[in-house]
UniProtKB/TrEMBL annotation:
Residue span(s) of domain RecF/RecN/SMC N-terminal: 2-507
Record's protein name: DNA repair protein RecN
Lineage summary: Bacteria, Pseudomonadati, Pseudomonadota, Gammaproteobacteria, Pseudomonadales
GO cellular component, one term: bacterial nucleoid
Biological source species: Marinobacter vulgaris
Function: May be involved in recombinational repair of damaged DNA.
Biological process, per Gene Ontology: DNA recombination; DNA repair; SOS response
PANTHER family: DNA REPAIR PROTEIN RECN
Single GO MF descriptor: ATP binding
């Protein structure tokens, strides 16, 4: 719901700050006083087109801020959260227009594209004006209103999701079918490559182990020779390390007297002799047991050669061959009777089409039943609005090719026949501005209990009517306000007398500059304004009495 509108340096308004509440708000004033300022400013806040002429003469920029309470507007909260612009239950739309015609848009203080204002604005407010694009002329609005009236929004969402699933699968199938030759060639290549890698059967870490074994086997002669020589030097030769240690010990053991200072040295030599003897034994056993099989070396080198050759063939390093093998295998599984196969996609597509048809058929049946009821109720409202000859038809146009569509199996369009005997045609081609406003009013009254748009704006909905019909229009607008929020520009006292809140627009000149003033009227002010609307400039006591009676009756009628 709109809670506040602030306008600075827009048109002839220097500064306007308005508070709004639930219910019906009427905007009245003399012709040319600036009543359109409020509606035009709201249109700009909703992402409407702007130009340099919108900026007040002498100012650098125009600044428009509209504040909404979205606590009860789930769709708006979801949109804000999805775009990371949520700020509790408040939504502030701001538009700044510079005198060169450029503009900037903000949502909750964050800069945003103008399209974001339009998208979010369409959820927050619906403006019905004779002079600008109206949502009532769009088929998607017709479908939305009918689905809300029928109470099938959830079923519509399920149908749309089923269509998305079906559409994605069809795209994948089409791509596979269009690239069938390439896919088959790829499949054959994958089979050949995987078979080669299967035969190689390379295990993770095997190549590193083979390379170490090859290094040892290729130096077997050197290893044996050096190990044998080391054994000789340790224990086998006449002047081996073991013999030299024995001789050193004998020299110390043959000392004529015991020398305590040499005791530790003698112990060290004894330990060294033992270590040298054990090392010699180990070397001897190693030489005796060492396997320098040239046949094994040939096997290892042949295996490594096959690994290196396979890596070069695929232009990768040998270490990555096992991982590469796994990736090719996974791709082959996907293409060869896997998730992406033509046969499987065709089966999925058929099942998804069946699911879509089931949901869409339920949706169509509900729409057909609701359309008849909607037409009847709107016809009743049109009769009250002095349009009894107008025939309203909710037309369901079934898709000829029966091709699935996001919104179901048919298009929804509101048609009217302005005169008896004439065929029903689209609203935009039949209804005039005033007629369209009244038709829109009738529709909104009927769907008010189910509509998700919280704020409705009507610009001169009472054009071309008067008397009792004008009073009916007032009652209908008031009833809409009882269930939400309605703003209307009116020239009729019968309408203004029934509103919850009354804004009076006036114009004055000061220091050769023109200004527009908008003020909220109290009860006395409202009676005076109703009298002005009834009697013009010269207001008599009779006019004021009539205005007071009309105001009192207009307010009492709804209690």
């Amino acid at each position: 719901m709109l809670t506040q509108l602030t306008v600075s340096n827009y048109a002839i308004a220097e500064r306007v700050e308005l508070q709004f509440g639930k219910g019906m708000t009427a905007l009245t004033g003399e012709t040319g006083a600036g009543k359109s300022i409020v509606l035009d400013a709201l249109g700009l806040a909703m992402g409407g087109r702007a130009d340099a002429g919108a900026v007040r003469h002498g100012a650098k920029r125009a600044d428009i801020t509209a504040t909404f309470d979205v606590s009860r507007i789930a769709e708006a909260r979801q949109w804000l959260e999805a775009h990371e612009l949520d700020d509790d239950n408040q939504c502030i739309l701001r538009r700044v227009i510079s005198k060169d015609g450029r503009s900037r848009a903000y949502i909750n203080g964050q800069p945003c594209p103008l399209t974001h204002l339009k998208d979010l604005g369409s959820v927050l407010m619906d403006i019905h004006s004779q002079h600008q694009h109206q949502s009532l002329l769009r088929k998607e609005t017709h479908r939305k209103l009918l689905d809300e009236f029928a109470g099938v929004e959830s079923l519509g969402d399920q149908t749309r999701e089923a269509w998305k699933t079906w559409h994605k699968t069809r795209q994948r199938l089409t791509e596979r079918q269009q690239n069938a030759d390439e896919a088959e060639a790829r499949l054959q290549l994958l089979r050949y490559q995987v078979e080669e890698l299967d035969r190689l059967a390379l295990e993770t870490g095997e190549q590193e182990q083979l390379e170490k074994e090859q290094e040892q086997l290729s130096h077997a002669d050197t290893v044996l020779h050096n190990s044998h020589q080391a054994n000789l030097l340790c224990t086998e030769d006449d002047n081996s390390a073991a013999d030299l240690l024995r001789q050193a010990l004998q020299q110390l053991e043959q000392l004529p007297v015991e020398i305590p200072a040499l005791a530790e040295t003698i112990q060290m030599l004894n330990e060294a002799q033992i270590q040298i003897t054990e090392a010699g034994d180990n070397l001897r056993h190693f030489v005796e047991d060492y396997d320098a099989d040239p046949t094994r070396l040939a096997e290892v080198e042949e295996r490594l050669s096959a690994i290196y050759q396979m890596a070069r063939k695929h232009r990768i390093t040998p270490e990555t061959l096992p991982e590469f093998h796994q990736s090719l295998n996974a791709e082959l599984t996907s293409l060869d009777d896997g998730e992406g196969s033509v046969e499987k996609l065709e089966a999925e597509l058929e099942e998804q089409r069946r699911r879509f048809n089931e949901l869409a058929s339920q949706l169509s049946e509900s729409r057909q039943q609701a359309a008849a009821s909607l037409d009847q109720k709107i016809a009743e409202e049109l009769a009250q609005l002095s349009m009894p000859a107008v025939q309203f038809v909710t037309h369901l146009n079934r898709n000829r090719d029966a091709e699935p569509a996001p919104h179901g199996l048919e298009d929804v369009e509101f048609l009217v026949s302005a005169n008896p005997g004439q065929p029903a045609r689209p609203l935009a081609k039949v209804a005039s501005g005033g007629e369209l406003s009244r038709i829109s009013l009738a529709i909104q009254v009927v769907v008010a209990q189910t509509s998700t748009t919280p704020t409705l704006v009507f610009d001169e909905v009472d054009v071309g009517i008067g008397g009792g019909t004008a009073e009916v229009v007032g009652r209908l607008l008031r009833s809409l306000g009882d269930n939400g929020q309605v703003l209307c520009v009116t020239h009729l006292a019968q309408v203004a007398a029934q509103c919850h809140q009354h804004l009076f627009v006036s114009k004055f000149t000061e220091a050769d500059a023109t200004y527009s003033r908008i003020e909220s009227l109290d009860d006395d002010g409202r009676v005076s304004e109703v009298a002005r609307m009834l009697g013009g400039v010269d207001m008599t006591e009779h006019t004021i009495a009539h205005a007071h009676e009309m105001f009192t009756k207009g307010q009492a009628t709804h209690h």
